[in-house]
Design goal:
The chain is α/β, with parallel strands linked by helices and 293 residues long. It contains eleven helices and eleven strands. The chain starts with 6 loop residues before the first strand and ends in a 7-residue tail after the last helix.
């Protein structure tokens, strides 16, 4: 449930269906092939192998990275884009995305795509900062970082009222009391939160920049699944400002049962489907050729 307080982005078509990357064999399957794979998925499949064709879905932590996928898809599959477009990005609860990543249908894989710019900055700049420490289990080298990076503000030892105390950062901004673990997905967001936190606790002699532990989101969740600690029971993943802006922009539309929600997610997709199927039916009665649209 901790993951459901955050969102990521997924590419969708005008029917609000996820846009997948599919192997060439999928587009060439006939009725017999579809029948075989339906039987295979239901009764034979145990796990995917390298020779098993599978579809791939992607979850993004940055809108620009997601838009690049949409643009390349539109160029490569222009005919499909005309039928099912416009393509767009849609916010999805991180908890749902992680569940699909771990437990998906046969021959369907979902992958988390980290912020590409954030990865580049982390590899070539951030990792060399004195206040940045890499988690002991993190796989990282000169050109690679495994997983989606997260930044965890570490406790700070300070002098207060002639006593040495451990000062913990928390989202509720209550000094000396760590209510929940905060996982930032960008270093900039972590610095902004700390700056606000420090300004609200000026009586404490806090450093300008906190010590930060860098790990990956998948590894953190996997560790929590193996051993439930106090931190694992209450944590929050903070998306970058890019995703927050998208959520704020769509907040009115995403209110369930509102007129905007019904119009955007129910009425428009239904009209689009009816229009497309009517074109299919009309085409089938007037020609034997495949549709050229």
């Amino acid at each position: 449930k901790n993951l459901n307080f955050s969102s990521i982005l997924v590419p969708i078509n005008s029917f609000y269906r996820i846009v997948f990357s599919i192997p060439d064999i999928e587009s060439k399957k006939n009725f017999v092939d579809n029948l075989f794979f339906s039987y295979f998925d239901a009764f034979i499949w145990k796990k995917d192998s390298l020779i098993t064709p599978f579809k791939q879905g992607f979850f993004f932590f940055n809108s620009q990275d997601a838009k690049e996928i949409l643009h390349s898809s539109q160029s490569a599959y222009f005919r499909s884009f005309k039928r099912y477009g416009p393509l767009k990005i849609f916010p999805l609860k991180l908890g749902v995305a992680y569940k699909w990543n771990r437990i998906s249908k046969p021959r369907v894989h979902f992958h988390f795509i980290p912020d590409v710019k954030e990865i580049g900055d982390l590899l070539f700049k951030y990792r060399h900062y004195k206040n940045i420490k890499i988690h002991k289990s993190q796989v990282i080298n000169k050109n690679n970082f495994k997983g989606v990076p997260i930044y965890i503000i570490q406790p700070e030892i300070i002098q207060h009222n002639n006593q040495q105390i451990v000062f913990n950062y928390s989202s509720y901004l209550k000094p000396l009391d760590q209510n929940q673990q905060i996982l930032f997905t960008s270093l900039h967001s972590a610095y902004q939160a700390w700056s606000y936190f420090k300004s609200n606790h000026s009586s404490f002699n806090l450093s300008d920049k906190p010590n930060i532990l860098v790990y990956n989101l998948e590894g953190y969740i996997h560790d929590c699944e193996k051993k439930i600690t106090e931190e694992c029971q209450n944590f929050r993943v903070i998306p970058n400002q890019d995703i927050i802006n998208i959520l704020e922009k769509d907040s009115d539309i995403n209110k369930k049962y509102s007129i905007k929600y019904f119009y955007s997610y129910k009425f428009l997709p239904t009209i689009k489907k009816m229009t497309l199927w009517s074109k299919y039916i009309f085409w089938s009665f007037t020609t034997r050729q495949k549709p050229d649209w």
